[in-house]
Amino acid sequence: MHKFRNLALLFALPLVTMATAVSAKEPKIVVELAPASTFDMRVEQLVPVLNGQMAYEAFFTPSFLAAVPPAQIKAISDSFTQQYGKALSVQSVQRSGTNNATLQVEYDKAVATIEITTEASPPFKVAGLLAKGFAVKGDSIDKIKADFGALSGTSGFVVQKLSDDGVATLYAVNADTQFATGSTFKLYVLAELASQVAGGQRRWSDVVPLGVRNHSSAGTQNWPLDTPVTLQTLATWMISVSDNAATDALMRELGRDAVEGKLATIGHSAPDKALPMLTTVEAFALKSNPALRQRFEKASEAGQRELLTSERAALSYGAIDMSQLGSGPVAIDTIEWSASPKRHNLAAQQPPPHRQPDRARHHGSQQRYWPCNGKQMALFRI
After folding, report:
1. Domain boundaries, the chain
2. Are strands 16-19 and 100-107 parallel, antiparallel or unpaired?
């Protein structure tokens, strides 16, 4: 297994010319000592970049940063660090071309498979980066079951194998039990958007005003409400950094009824616990307002829908009282997006929007941010 040199080699050596001793009648022979591979240099810089120890502008191409801003890179890199610890080293490199390779990058708790592409000319900055998956160290299905069993409350999961012959369930624990799914409900929003684009009702390049503000919106934070954005941009922020404002903007454009219809089409074993499908602002506002929350919890589905209409002011961003949310879960059995592991996997199995979004072209390159399996973000590709 190829091991990389020390971090000191992050800086390429300049070309050095050396002259050999020659006779007066012989021409001078000049030998150029090539620098350490520029591609290897970029590969070795990846670890400090993933750990936030190197400026993104010194590593990525301008077109890459235009498509994937530094804030988004940091948010995704931080999510990897929170789950798998710090990046430690590049364990191996499998070259697929002069400027392309698949890397095995060791983290504290896992090994990541990452594809990297550099420019073909100086300064050979990174033009493409895609984290394809993580293999947790020392992991096994028995260890996973034990970890789930050690959790407080009720927990569950399902592991399924997808093939041309269908879906085969390999392992399952409480796979039919309803759980609060949190931000993974955004898969239903993405699925409905992709369906409307495929049906010709919308285009990825359609421009709409942001029009929404909410907490936990790393992508659109501090953007003016009238900022024009494409549907593809909103979908990218929703999936890549779980941006809540982008999600609610898409819910507004697609329509609550349409997204709920997609949930029904995909399949849900207990729709009464999932409907009405809340926006993230509505969920925050209900959780932070005990009196309004109790009214919502006691109402029928029809009553809940009426409350969402009649109490719009109390369910707005400005009405959210974050001090009421504390540091732990609030009303996760009643004010949430519920699904069973088995049914929720159906949303993850929806065909991804293979067609490249209209906006995804920068200097002849392409970008793609869609998840391949569930809401498991895999960084960026140009």
Report:
1. 7-136, 141-175, 178-359
2. unpaired
Question: Residues 209-253: pLDDT tens digits?
Answer: 999 999 888 889 889 999 999 999 999 999 988 999 999 999 999
Tokens coding 294: 């109790």
DSSP 18-40: EE----TTSPPPEEEEPPSPHHH
Q: Give me the torsion for CA of 86, 217, 179, 83, rounded to 10°.
A: 0
Helices (H), 106-183: 141-149
The candidate with the shortest Cα–Cα distance to 273, out of 354, 176, 359, is 176
CB 353 within 8 A of CB 288: no
Q: Phi and psi dihedrals of 91, rounded to 5?
A: -80, -40
Tokens 């990058």 appear where? 105
User: Could you tell me if 230 and 207 are in contact, meaning their C-beta atoms sit under 8 angstroms apart?
Assistant: yes
Residue 107 has pLDDT above 80, yes or no: yes
What integer is the mean pLDDT of 192-220? Answer: 93
Pair of tokens at residue 316: 């707005």
What DSSP state is assigned to residue 99? Answer: T
pLDDT at 267 over 90: no
234 — phi, psi (to 5°)?
Answer: -60, -45
By C-alpha distance, which of 313, 320, 249 is closest to 287?
320
What gap in Å lies between CA 280 and CA 257, rounded to an integer?
A: 16
- What is the tens place of the pLDDT at every residue in 301-335? 999 999 999 999 999 999 999 888 877 889 988 99
Instruction: Report the mean per-residue pLDDT for the chain.
Output: 81
Radius of gyration of the CA atoms of the chain, in A = 25
Structure token pair of residue 24: 């007066």
Mean pLDDT, range 139-164, rounded to an integer: 88
Paired residues of 161 in beta bridges: 168
Instruction: Supply the pTM of this predicted model.
Output: 0.63
Q: Provide the token pair at 134.
A: 């993580």
Structure tokens at 190: 């993405």
Q: Are 243 and 227 in contact (CB under 8 A)?
A: no
Q: Residue 135 CA to chain centroid, in angstroms?
A: 17
Structure tokens at 310: 């009649």
